[in-house]
Amino acid sequence: MKLGRMISLLLLVGAVAGFVGCSAAPTHLAYLTVPNLNGVAAFRIRNDSAAFTELVGSPFPAGLSPSSLYVHPSNRFVYVANQESNDISLFTINSTVGSLSEIFPRTPTAITPVAITMNSAGTFLFAVNEASSNISVYSINVGTGALTQVAGSPFPTFPNPTGLVLTPSGKFLYVVDPNQSSIYGYSVSSAGELTQVTTYQFTIGTGPFGMAVDPGGKFLYVTNPTANTVSVLLIDPSNGALTSVPESPFTTGTTPLGVTVHPSGQYLYVGNEGANSVSAFSVGTTGVLTQITGSPFTGATAPILLVTDPNGNFLYAVSQSSKLVSVFSITLTSNTPNALTTQLGALTSSLQSANTGAAASSIFITTK
Fold this sequence. Notes:
It is globular and about 50 Å long. The two termini are 34 Å apart. The longest helix has 6 residues, at 9-14. A hairpin with a 6-residue loop joins strand 7 and strand 8. It has one domain: YVTN repeat-like/Quinoprotein amine dehydrogenase (Methylamine Dehydrogenase, Chain H), CATH 2.130.10.10. It has helices at residues 3-6, 9-14, 16-19, and strands spanning 27-34, 39-46, 52-54, 60-61, 66-71, 77-82, 87-93, 100-108, 113-118, 124-129, 134-140, 147-149, 155-156, 163-166, 172-177, 182-188, 194-203, 211-213, 219-224, 229-235, 242-244, 250-251, 256-261, 267-272, 277-283, 289-291, 297-298, 303-308, 314-319, 324-330, 347-355, 362-365. It contains three helices and 32 strands. The chain is mostly beta strands.
């Protein structure tokens, strides 16, 4: 199976807006798509220690080779893109235990949906279809969770896109295409329709892969696994055009794939699959990255997916080769316990981890 089909980093990074803010609950939930098991693995995570407990019934059956998932902002529904059955599963979340129950029938997509994301209001869902080279857009019934395809969907894009990310405002959508070494930008209308932005195609490096947008919607971060760098692009708030910030791209470890932004927007983390490490950067006001002392940090085997918890205290790194989710604590104050360094944003490997049973292709952490 192609790497683009196995790894759905955009969903991760498209969920950044959902991570902003703190949760008062003692635990929150983690859901991961596991293609080889045709299911969704589910865990409850303690807010204080990041200890994982697998839910009874996990993994929950989905369609064929689920590639990506997204949790509705209401925490009532989970949407799962099934890349080999060309459809989207809708699950309801048990509000007490977090278990999933699928609602049939499934919603058809175009061919090979590899990544999905959603606007912060939970009114539109976007799916990028790799084999048919287009983007499906659906309106969401916030009461039932049901999907209805918007007028004009699916919208065309360049051949073989592998991921997408939406700005927190919901105004702009970006699609990554490694084969074209490009990022493509779209504006999103109030009806969910997509229109190419003025500077539609932004050529970047060779084989760009993972994307993330900061909580303020100011910067787009893109990993370049062939060049071992991460690019930082400034997003024009008026028209969605992209421009490189000074000094971009910035050096990472070997084969950077996953990328995520801290909920504060002050720190950026990149998973280096080839170096078994995570590079950590502080983010300047202009977008310039400065590597944090001690970076890159070890403690995860071949990390490909990264995400922070809602409170910003922990970073979770997903490995397909070890089938583990590894945990790092994030230094947020100078007296953070067990910190390797007092520099803010630094990582400390934790003893906590979770076994997904098979290689996971996406992860989403809920706010409660």
